[in-house]
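Our working data are protein records whose layout never changes between entries. The record below serves as our worked example for the rest of this section:
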Amino acid sequence: MHGVLRKLALPALALLLSACGPLPHPFEQDAPNALIEDRQALSTISIAPVEGAPGLDKALITGFETEDIPASTQPPGPGGLWLRGSRNGGQITWTLEDAQGGMIGTVATAMPPKATPAEIAAAVGHVLRGEDPNAVADERPHVVLAPLKAPKTFDAEGLRNALGRALLREGYAVGEAKGAAAVIQGEVHITPPPPSMTKGQDMLDIAWTIKAPDGKELGKVAQGNPVDHILLTGYLGPLGRAIAEAAAPGIAEVLHKQTNP
């Protein structure tokens, strides 16, 4: 459902890291993965209509889904944000405000069709995450992130995108095979509860395998957690972000040991 952010009551994601043999590596995801310190960005972003760009506010909702940011065209609730666009020639200046009108940040983008809704959402996402949109990701070592193997009802592409952003914050960009430091493969398994547990949760297991370009296995990161079934169908949103943020440090540790033995 667009524009709705549900609070997730999930236990800490369990994670096991192995590289050159099993290495216990517990990782707790107790702290909120806030995009800005006061957690406002975890609330729904409300997109105001842009004069001279009819329909852009609604088109941006899908773009923000790719950024794992819930969005709506409805007024914000407590802790929510306004995104307002002001057209200036061939550009739009976007202003992020809190519900009381206090400015959080601004970013300028080209007008559609020169900038797609996805590109605009990515630019706003940089502001929320405190990233430099002009940073050259190609200067960082890059890895290949293969398409995930997952059930058809699972938002595999959403999790893959979330992991790519989490790895970027660990110092690794996702790119093409040429010159890549490693290939990361992910496999998702969902096991329903036994029939006797009418209110049981599905067991979500994810295995990340890190391989050298020549196919040699460098290490694995395993995650497992019981999750409500409804959260595993359709748009993952904050759950996908939490999974990615839990996995990225372990994956980065394997990559770091490979490049710094």
In short: The chain has two domains: 14-34+137-259, 40-129. Confidence is low (pLDDT under 50) at residues 1-42. Residues 14-34+137-259 form a domain with the Double Stranded RNA Binding Domain fold (CATH 3.30.160). The chain has four helices and twelve strands.
